[in-house]
Amino acid sequence: MNKKILTLLLALVLLGSSCTKYLGVDEVNPNSASAVPPKLLLPAALNNLVLVMDNPRYFDFCYLWYGAWSISSGYAQDPVFVQYSLYNTSFQASWSILYPIGQNLTVIQNAATDPNDGGYKAIAMILKAYIMQNLVDIWGNVPYSQAFGATSGILKPKYDDQQKIYEDLESKLTAAIKIIQGLTVNANAIPAFSDIVYGGDMSMWAKFANTLKLRLLVHQSGMSGRASYITSCIDSTASAGYLGAGEGAMVNPGYSASTSLPPFYGVFYSTSGTQNADAYTYFYAGKDAVDFLVANSDPRLSHYFNAPAGGGAFEGNYIGQDATIHPALAPKLTATLGYSATNGQYYMVGSPSESAPLLTDFESLFIQAEAAQRGFISADPGTLYNAAVTQSFASMNLASAAAAYLSQNNAQVNYANSQNPLTLILTQKWVAMNGVAPIELWTDWRRTGIPANLHFTENANKANPTPPVRLLYPQTEIVSNNDNVTAVGTINAFTSKIFWQP
What we know:
Elements: H1 3-13, H2 38-53, H3 56-65, E1 69-71, H4 79-82, H5 93-111, H6 118-139, E2 142-143, E3 159-160, H7 162-181, H8 202-219, H9 227-236, E4 249-251, H10 263-268, H11 277-280, E5 283-285, H12 287-295, H13 301-304, E6 339-340, E7 345-346, E8 356-359, H14 361-373, H15 381-394, H16 402-406, H17 421-432, H18 438-448, H19 475-480, H20 482-488
Antiparallel strand pairs: 1-5, 2-3, 4-8, 6-7
Helix pairs in contact: 1-2, 2-5, 2-6, 3-18, 5-6, 6-7, 6-8, 7-8, 8-14, 14-15, 14-17, 15-17
């Protein structure tokens, strides 16, 4: 993408956000983009979406609570992370950004009245489903039917039942796939600069929608009496297929050191390539992640994390750990998140030009492997599992090492030797999601309890033995939409489960 287009895109991104105040779901954006053509609104919405979903500062709690990362001993241990002391102000910024993005997607959807604009309408429907799935998975009941301007004049939207939202998202994704499949050969030629994911390839958007749909359905796989519903929903769009190797939904408007940095990399490094100390030296390796990688001779270890300064073995800390709990470990300043300046390789942290994921190919393959293992799709789960791990390796420039890793005589790695294939699939997915998909990492543990041997906070003042199962409603909503927040009922961060959680 050339610099002129990227400059325009970055200007449009600002339509839905402010550096000093975020819009609530019930507020009107005075800089409304309603008059901007869909071909310009779409890249802005896509870029704005990954600026939230792939910025680790919004969802770092997922990595910290579930063994992937820890906090350097050089920093104060935030009670939100180490004591689970949640407040209504905790992590509320993502709510206040995602809803305005959804509003701009509604503008695209409503503007696509010509049959030749069906592609824009379908993409907007798919991305709104993506947003709503994440909002439900974080907060449960949320505004939906009266949000995004769906009902004119509603300034204080009601909160919809979370399971009904999920079911409507399934219907919307099915409808979006049908729109794509009904497009004529040359209809809706979306230009590459507008579609900064697939360059206008609508068949890939259909696969993305179907993969997102499968993700929603697999989330519900632990619910009693849900099997026939899941199977029927899968059957209705089976012809669309799912994202395979090399087909991940990756956003890139033209990231580079001289223009705009990818969201993950930009937290850790500046445009000049220097480290942002309060990120690079704040997040360290989680002991659960390091121990699993070491125990299974996983070459991704040195790509997820950097070896400690001065050499020596990789170390990880438990969250909430200090010198009084593990005197031998606490002074060792564990490995930082992966970036190697000596050989120019960018691993977990990424690079100045790297694409930002909405849904990676390896996550798609892990979702399919789980669905096949549970009997929901007709495919070989072992083949899908091997492909998922291989693509995780490939994402770190380790594709050539995947076959040897998978062929180990090790039940923690080798599908054929595993005594519990579902546990294997979900544990390896936990490894692969490190630094990639925080909400899915959190969701998988909440719905399955896998991996089962994670160490939770060791802080003596923890509010609960295990992490929260959801966030509390944002303070911005309590102030501006209190009647509808109150109507949901009393919310407890440790017991008010999302509907799909056992």
